[in-house]
UniProtKB/TrEMBL annotation:
Function: This protein is a component of the acetyl coenzyme A carboxylase complex; first, biotin carboxylase catalyzes the carboxylation of the carrier protein and then the transcarboxylase transfers the carboxyl group to form malonyl-CoA.
This protein's name: Biotin carboxyl carrier protein of acetyl-CoA carboxylase
Lipoyl-binding domain: residues covered: 89-165
Entry keyword annotation includes DNA-binding: no
Originating species: Algicella marina
Pfam families reported in the protein's UniProt record: Biotin_lipoyl (PF00364)
Feature: compositional bias, Low complexity: 52-67
Length: 165
């Protein structure tokens, strides 16, 4: 390429960069053909910093009291422990994201119920993740004090599932 072609290419690329900025684009890609065997492929891109999400408004709206939802069969009624159940020393938390199943299969009895004594390694429930059934064992001996999930409910990593006493 001659110096003249080179300087026109630089001006062309600068014009593309200006167009990128003016139109708030993140990328432009063009092909400039001079002749059959002389082609200039140009891709101009820029990184855009994501703006921080605006803070949610903190407006309190009074609502009428509604009856408490009934716990799932075998689950205990929620108790006000004054804190996060995940912080309870007897909490068994989810080791993965998935769907919780309290029974080995539909129509069968639950693995455990509130008040049951469990041994370390005993299956408490199953979490289905990516079409794989993962047994969740009791981390230690104890008694099931609370069941914090419903059968068929989605669970997140680290979510409290049971409280053992």
């Amino acid at each position: 390429m001659s110096n003249k072609e080179f300087s026109s290419d630089v001006a062309f690329i600068e014009a593309l960069a200006e167009m990128l900025r003016k139109n708030d684009l993140t990328e432009i890609e063009v092909r400039r053909e001079y002749a059959e065997d002389k082609v200039l492929d140009v891709r101009v891109a820029r990184t855009v910093q994501a703006a921080p999400a605006p803070a949610a408004p903190t407006t309190t709206i009074p609502v009428a009291a509604s009856p408490a939802p009934r716990p799932a069969e075998g689950a205990s009624a929620p108790q006000d422990t004054g804190g996060d159940p995940a912080q309870d020393p007897g909490a068994v938390t989810s080791p993965m994201v998935g769907t919780a199943y309290l029974q080995p299969e539909p129509g069968k009895p639950s693995f455990v119920a509130v008040g049951d004594a469990v041994k370390e390694g005993q299956t408490l429930m199953i979490i289905e993740a990516m079409k794989t059934m993962n047994q969740i064992p009791a981390p230690r001996d104890g008694t099931v004090k609370r069941i914090l999930v419903e059968d068929g409910a989605p669970v997140e990593f680290g979510a409290p599932l049971f409280i053992l006493g």
